[in-house]
């Protein structure tokens, strides 16, 4: 059955300007880091993508290595794009990245000009696209001159393979250096994608100031701290959760008594606000106007809809913010 997008998809989503650019992004964007790979169920993630766009989510974020296996998330997204979203391509902001290991040998990761340009070409082929809207350097490379990495991003934009350049996982000093080089090249940095949540506060230690001072957008990933900031771990580690998996990014030692106590207290505040803990965690990030959009993941449609519900209550009283800070500061 042919997919027809919801005609009211723009009625309820708010969009924030990305830095000083002409681009506005939905307050919630969808990331394909997990749940869209070759090991996942096609109809499930197809429904997630459709539901997201029907709700006004216009930004889908990928990377060359997303899967598993690496590359499969882009291939799967490309298949759904061709079947469902081609008529709406000009309504979408599609991003990809390169920086992590993708193929064997010395040119298969990090930030060389050869790797970034080859990765962009391969990503476009997997997705069946002529260009991506944003192409990121996924992580800084300690062994490649910053000028080479930023020069590659500049080339990718000037060649028409991407409309904008972005950075991810760069610290404040690296970001300032990269931003200055890109500015001199005439391809300004559009956006930065850092790991940021109630439990991961490093961006507050200088990065957000660099982004604000340079009028660059910010799209935090892992806003729920790999699921910690949900109802899932209120009573410990459930079977089948990410923390129960030996190969997951969330490790069992992160679910300790201190963390569980914080989660329970935060959940009490969320309930008093008429929200789930996940919804409050997303709304908490959006309280800062330097945040353009929050990048969420979803393994099922109900999870996506729950996250989108965060936008129903983005206001925090001074008392609520103080209570949250007290909880987070506890040892």
Descriptive account of the structure:
The chain has 331 residues and is an alpha/beta fold. It has a single domain (15-255, 276-315), classed as TIM Barrel (Alpha-Beta Barrel). It is 37% helix and 13% strand. It is built from ten helices and ten strands. It has helices spanning 42-54, 72-85, 113-127, 146-158, 172-185, 207-213, 257-272, 277-286, 301-308, 318-329, and strands spanning 15-17, 24-26, 28-31, 59-61, 93-98, 132-137, 162-168, 189-193, 217-218, 294-296. It has an eight-stranded parallel beta sheet with strand order 9-8-7-6-5-4-3-10. Strands 1-2 form a two-stranded antiparallel sheet. Strand 7 (162-168), helix 5 (172-185) and strand 8 (189-193) form a beta-alpha-beta unit. Helix 3 (113-127) packs parallel to helix 4.
CATH class: Alpha Beta
CATH homologous superfamily grouping: NADP-dependent oxidoreductase domain
Total beta strands = 10
The averaged pLDDT comes out at 95
The percent of residues in helical segments reads: 25-40%
As for the CATH topology, it is TIM Barrel
The radius of gyration over CA amounts to: 19 Å
Largest sheet: 8 strands, parallel
Principal-axes shape call:
globular
Q: In terms of per-residue confidence, which ranges show pLDDT below 50 for 5 or more consecutive residues?
A: 243-248
CATH architecture grouping: Alpha-Beta Barrel
- Neighbour order of strands in the largest sheet: 9-8-7-6-5-4-3-10
- State the distance separating the first and last CA atoms: 54 Å
Structurally, the number of domains stands at 1
Give me the number of helical elements.
Answer: 10
Structural class based on helices, strands and sheet pairing = alpha/beta
Order of helices and strands: EEEHEHEHEHEHEHEHHEHH
Percentage of residues in strands: 5-15%
């Amino acid at each position: 059955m042919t997919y027809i997008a919801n005609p009211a998809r723009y009625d309820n989503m708010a969009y924030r300007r990305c830095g000083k650019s002409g681009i506005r992004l939905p307050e919630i964007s969808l990331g394909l880091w997990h749940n869209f790979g070759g090991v996942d169920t096609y109809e499930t993630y197809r429904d997630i993508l459709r539901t997201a766009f029907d709700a006004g989510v216009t930004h889908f974020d990928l990377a060359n290595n997303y899967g598993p296996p690496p590359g499969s998330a882009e291939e799967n997204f490309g298949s759904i794009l061709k079947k469902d979203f081609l008529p709406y391509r000009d309504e979408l902001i599609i991003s990809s990245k390169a920086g992590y290991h993708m193929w064997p040998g010395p040119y298969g990761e990090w930030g060389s000009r050869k790797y970034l340009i080859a990765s962009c070409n391969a990503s476009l082929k997997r997705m069946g696209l002529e260009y991506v809207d944003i192409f990121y350097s996924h992580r800084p490379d300690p062994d490649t001159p910053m000028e080479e990495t930023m020069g590659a991003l500049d080339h990718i934009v000037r060649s028409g393979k991407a409309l904008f350049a972005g950075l991810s996982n760069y610290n404040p000093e690296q970001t300032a250096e990269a931003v200055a080089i890109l500015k001199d090249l005439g391809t300004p940095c559009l956006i930065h994608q850092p790991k940021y949540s109630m439990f991961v506060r490093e961006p507050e230690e200088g990065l957000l100031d660099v982004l604000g001072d340079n009028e660059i957008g910010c799209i935090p990933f892992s806003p729920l701290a790999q699921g910690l900031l949900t109802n899932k771990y209120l009573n410990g580690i459930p079977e089948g959760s990410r923390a129960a998996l030996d190969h997951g990014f969330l490790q069992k030692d992160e679910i300790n008594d201190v963390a569980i106590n914080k989660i329970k207290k935060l959940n009490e505040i969320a309930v008093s606000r008429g929200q789930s803990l996940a919804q409050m965690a997303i709304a908490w990030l959006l309280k800062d106007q330097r945040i353009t959009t929050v990048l969420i993941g979803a393994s099922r449609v109900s999870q996506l809809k729950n996250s989108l519900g965060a936008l129903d209550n983005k206001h925090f009283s001074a008392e609520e913010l103080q209570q949250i800070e007290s909880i987070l500061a506890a040892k």
